[in-house]
Amino acid sequence: MINTSLPFAMEQLCFNGGGIIVSMFIVKLGTESVAANAVSNSTLMVFYSMGLAVSNLSVTIIGQCIGAKDKKMARYYGKIMVWLGEVSILVSLAALLPFLRIILKLYQAPDNTLGQIYMLLAIAFVPMALLWSTSNVLPNVLRAAGDVNFTSYVSLITMWLIRSVIFIMRFHSDRWLNQRGCEKRIVPKKKKDQEFIMNSRSFFLL
Predict the structure, then answer these.
(1) What is the tens place of the pLDDT at every residue in 124-136?
(2) Residue 161 and residue 131 in contact, taking contact as beta carbons nearer than 8 Å
(3) Which pairs count as long-range contacts for 192-201, CB under 8 Å and 24+ apart, including other chains?
(4) C or N: which end of the chain has fewer Cβ atoms within 10 Å?
(5) What is the pLDDT of residue 186?
(6) Which residues of the chain have pLDDT under 50?
(7) Quick one: three-class SS letters along the chain?
(8) For the segment 77-121, what is each residue's pLDDT rounded down to a tens digit?
């Protein structure tokens, strides 16, 4: 568990530390820029909340497959999770974009910051629609199979496009299915555990 959680914890520590450094530069731009950055970041969290739920779900599903020593099923559900994450992001954008003005009113953003907010959101929405799932859901798929060190190292030194390409290559290489963490998993002996996996597979095939 320590081998799995420690690299991820360090990744989050560096990521949040990077956010603090970015905020230090934004503060120098004035209060308008600080307000625009805060509102745009909070708005983006609303838009990718569905995708984040899929990302967390992928850990449980792939973990069940790895625990059952079924690499074929893990690979199958890995693809399903990535595509489900992509669809959830697109659905969120399509459903919430018409209400963007209403969402921004909830934050009571000053009128003089709206221009900057719209610009920041426009810059973020394009890569978000194309790359969010492969750069956020796919790493969790790999982590669930014990491929933690690779995903953490890549996440620390890359962002968006580069990490998406690298994670896709890693997924298709199947090396993530041969990690030491996979070999230490306990095969589920209880019948209900096996039935859960089969029922989950039937659900996604509907």
Answers:
(1) 999 999 999 998 8
(2) yes
(3) 193/64, 193/67, 193/68, 194/68, 196/64, 197/64, 197/65, 197/68, 197/70, 197/73, 200/61, 200/64, 200/77, 201/73, 201/76, 201/77
(4) C
(5) 46
(6) 185-189, 203-206
(7) CHHHHHHHHHHHHHHHHHHHHHHHHHHCCCHHHHHHHHHHHHHHHHHCHHHHHHHHHHHHHHHHHHHCCCHHHHHHHHHHHHHHHHHHHHHHHHHHHHHHHHHHHHCCCCHHHHHHHHHHHHHHHHHHHHHHHHHHHHHHHHHHCCCHHHHHHHHHHCCHHHHHHHHHHHHHHCHHHHCHHHHCCCCCCCHHHHHHHHHHHHHHHC
(8) 999 999 999 999 999 999 999 999 999 989 888 888 899 999 999
Q: Supply 149's token pair.
A: 């060190």
Structure tokens at 155: 């996440």
